[in-house]
Write a structure and sequence with these properties.
Blueprint: H1 2-8, H2 13-41, H3 44-58
Helix pairs in contact: 1-2
Length: 60
């Protein structure tokens, strides 16, 4: 994806790498926090349906 960011959005290689790593950085921070929230509420099915709905809307 680095080449995509460089060619389509005219970003430097450093910014392209930063954009690529942003997803993993967010996942490293948010996964434990959301996991804790799911464990505390105990409503795994609702969290799952909410995350699926959010993903579908985000990719539409």
């Amino acid at each position: 994806a680095q080449l995509l960011f460089e060619s389509k959005y005219d970003l430097s290689p450093a910014w392209s790498n930063a954009c690529n790593s942003l997803v993993y950085f967010m996942s490293a921070i948010l996964s434990p926090l959301l996991g804790y929230a799911v464990d505390k509420t105990g409503r795994n099915l609702y969290w799952l349906m909410g995350s699926i709905t959010t993903t579908i809307i985000a990719h539409a």
